[in-house]
Design brief:
Blueprint (H helix, E strand, L loop, with lengths): L9 H15 L6 H14 L9 E2 L1 H13 L3 H12 L13 H8 L3 H14 L2 E5 L2 E4 L4 E2 L3 H8 L10
Antiparallel strand pairs: 1-4, 2-3
Helix pairs in contact: 1-2, 3-4, 4-5, 4-6, 5-6
Length: 162
């Protein structure tokens, strides 16, 4: 019988948990420090296998309609797709900064910032503080539905005028 060997060093798990703890504690981290920690977390966290994001179909359609009516819809759509691939489990926070999202979407960081602002104006994203966003829990979520419901009580639905 074959012996299974650990594919990643044990200290990676300790590093991952430490970084997650720092990000979860309500410290007054600068956006650059938070982005650096999120980037490091991406390097040390075990690769997610087939993670999923739940999307509310009606709210998603409204987001897409609003993106289509916005300035630079393709760039905004690319950032929307990049953002939902970086959601923090049970909080909906986007754990990537504008530089990482820009790389993922193959656009400039300034374009990524403008697209994030447009998504917040639409209501698809919630601006937590300068440079930090979370997905609107009425639009999508990754994690416990109980936590999504609690977050949704504090967040308005997306409404798009015709």
């Amino acid at each position: 019988m074959a012996k299974i060997h650990r594919a990643r060093p044990k200290q990676y798990d300790r590093i991952t948990e430490s970084i997650r703890l720092i990000l979860d504690v309500p410290l007054d981290l600068s956006p650059a420090a938070r982005d650096s920690l999120a980037e490091a977390l991406g390097k040390f966290a075990p690769p997610e296998t087939w993670g999923f994001v739940m999307l509310n179909p009606e709210q998603q359609r409204l987001v897409l309609q609003a993106i289509d009516r916005s300035d630079r819809p393709l760039i905004t759509f690319k950032i929307w797709n990049a953002a939902i691939s970086h959601l923090c489990y049970d909080t909906g926070e986007i754990m990537a900064g504008r530089e990482r999202l820009a790389r993922d979407a193959n656009i400039s960081p300034d374009e990524a910032s403008r697209a994030l602002a447009r998504l917040a104006e639409i209501g698809a994203l919630v601006r937590l503080k300068p440079g930090r966003y979370a997905i609107n829990p009425h639009v999508g979520w990754q994690g416990s539905l109980i936590k999504r419901e609690a977050a949704a009580k504090k967040t308005p639905l997306v409404v798009v005028g015709k």
